[in-house]
Design goal:
The complex is a heterodimer of chains A (318) and B (194). In chain A, 43% of the residues lie in helices and 16% in strands. With 318 residues, chain A is α/β, with parallel strands linked by helices. In chain A, helix 9 runs antiparallel to helix 10. The chains are: A alpha/beta (318), B mainly alpha (194).
């Protein structure tokens, strides 16, 4: 995804992982990235520490970042990111909601006997997809697909899945352009990589699907401090720490996300889930924005059971 | 009796701490879904390293007492300092234990709270707690100040060396780890924890 300016503050908040790798949007071919340009962008954004870290990455004789070194760094960062998702039990949170969504899709779909397709957008190393495949948390009638623009992450995700004998698939490319229909789009930690202007088209690309669930950090007043401490404690790589903290700082406020859904997928019922407690905002450090075919709302709420009390409806027949 | 209780409690804490150091040493290197075999092994290796450190420290204290002019007075001082050490470390261990238990058994939101506000920061402050315990131990020495200071330094060095050694071992071990096929965990009861 393109690196956009952060949604908050006057200076752009940049994540190194968005800057050190680039692909041709038409062909998917990897493009060379000049280290000096990345360093200059980070310096211009006032991020001297990140600029210093990038300046240490190796380059070829034309000053372009060495692909293999960048790949190694990105894989390492994603492995450490997975550790955070694990400690926050993010896969369990996501699967619990997704099961209710799939129950509604099964109940309301035109052909309940067909297999369902869940696509993880920007799946990285595919932790969520692999976790679901490994635990069988969504049932045997669900095809699990992870999509990412970075072929190196996809190859690594495939290697990991194969080594554990997991029934899931990973594809290189734009998840929203997948052929064959998708029942539910999901993502974890993707939305803050999109600029505010990119959000509405992103949601528009999923408007024909029965549902989507996109999880991203909640920008509460405690989040930046918590992110700084937690990433320092849990991430080994300085670049991973940097991007982890930036991701919280770049997270979109609820209103921005909900307005983008309303603009991009106006026919869908929309809600948030589990907004942070006012006094203890660290109870919910990530939350999903939910888009649902309005006809499935009743079944979804029924399938959620008591957890439905944590829904924060925005638009639609909730 | 008091000496044995203090020494026994400190050894238990040493082994438990080393076990957690071993576990943490393999975290963040492998992205396989099921790493339970690796993590259990790491916790056992850590515990073994802690036990080995305890044996070495016992040898140090034995030699120290054998060489002392007044072993009884030295033992009293070491016991007093050990109790001070224990007070600081036991408080840290209790907080860690409560947070760990909370993380395992509490509903997901409260587990998140335990992780973000307690377990994460505690990892960062562990070196400070080690030093604080050592300072408390030294401060509580009355007569045999020099042997107590030397003993505290030996204990700290043992813990630091053990931590570094385990981290090096963990990086290599986790990178080389390959899971057995088809061993991913069964689906947990998600509804209850949502």
């Amino acid at each position: 995804m393109a690196a956009g300016p952060g949604p908050q503050g006057s200076r752009p908040r940049l994540e190194v992982s968005d800057l050190v790798i680039a692909f041709d949007p038409r062909t998917g071919e990897r493009l060379p990235v000049a280290r000096d340009e990345v360093v200059d962008r980070l310096r211009a954004a006032g991020d001297r520490r990140a600029a210093r870290l990038v300046a240490r990455l190796p380059v070829d004789d034309r000053g372009h970042l060495q692909g293999a070194a960048v790949d190694e760094v990105l894989v390492r960062m994603h492995v450490q990111l997975q550790r955070l998702w694990e400690e926050l039990r993010q896969a369990q949170h996501s699967a619990a909601l997704l099961r209710a969504v799939l129950a509604a899709v099964r109940a309301g779909g035109p052909a309940p006997s067909r297999r369902l397709r869940v696509v993880d957008v920007g799946s990285g190393l595919g932790y969520f997809v692999r976790w679901v495949a490994g635990t069988g948390a969504l049932g045997a009638d669900v095809d699990l697909i992870g999509c990412d623009l970075d072929p190196v992450l996809v190859v690594e995700a495939r290697r990991l899945a194969e080594a554990e004998g997991l029934a899931c698939h990973f594809e290189v490319g734009d998840a929203l352009a997948l052929s064959g229909g998708v029942d539910v789009f999901v993502s974890s930690g993707l939305l803050h990589h999109l600029s505010t202007d990119e959000l509405a088209p992103f949601f528009a690309g999923q408007a024909a699907a029965p549902a989507f669930l996109h999880w991203d950090p909640v920008p509460t007043y405690l989040a930046p401090l918590g992110a700084r401490i937690f990433h320092r404690a849990r991430m080994r790589d300085p670049l991973a720490r940097h991007d982890g903290v930036r991701s919280i700082q770049r997270a979109h406020p609820d209103r921005v996300l909900l307005d983008a859904v309303a603009q991009g997928a106006p026919a869908m019922a929309t809600a948030l889930f589990g907004l942070p407690n006012r006094w203890l905002p660290v109870l919910d450090v990530v939350r999903p924005v939910i888009g649902l075919d309005a006809r499935l709302v009743g079944s979804f709420v029924d399938a959620l059971g008591p957890s439905a009390a944590r829904l924060v409806p925005e638009r639609g027949p909730w | 009796m008091v000496t044995a209780a203090v020494a026994g409690a400190l050894v238990l804490l040493l082994v438990a701490d080393a076990s957690l150091v071993g576990y943490r040493a393999v975290c963040g290197y492998s992205a396989f879904v099921d790493r339970s075999e690796l993590e259990h092994h790491a916790a056992r290796v850590g515990a073994a390293a802690g036990a080995a450190a305890a044996v070495l420290l016992a040898c140090w204290f034995g030699a120290l007492l054998l060489a002392a002019g007044d072993p009884g007075a030295l033992l009293d001082d070491l016991t007093r300092s050990g109790a001070a050490l224990l007070t600081v470390y036991a408080a840290f261990a209790a907080l860690t234990g409560v947070a760990l238990a909370g993380w395992y058994v509490a509903p997901s939101r409260w587990a998140t709270l335990a992780m973000v506000t307690i377990l994460g920061p505690l990892t960062l402050v562990r070196p400070l707690v080690l030093v604080a315990g050592a300072a408390a131990a030294v401060a509580s020495a009355e007569d045999a100040v020099a042997p107590v200071v030397a003993s505290v330094a030996v204990v700290l060095v043992a813990v630091v060396v053990e931590t570094i050694a385990l981290q090096r071992w963990g990086a290599a071990s986790a990178t080389a780890f390959r899971p057995a096929q088809g061993t991913a965990r069964p689906a947990p009861s998600l509804g209850r924890r949502a």
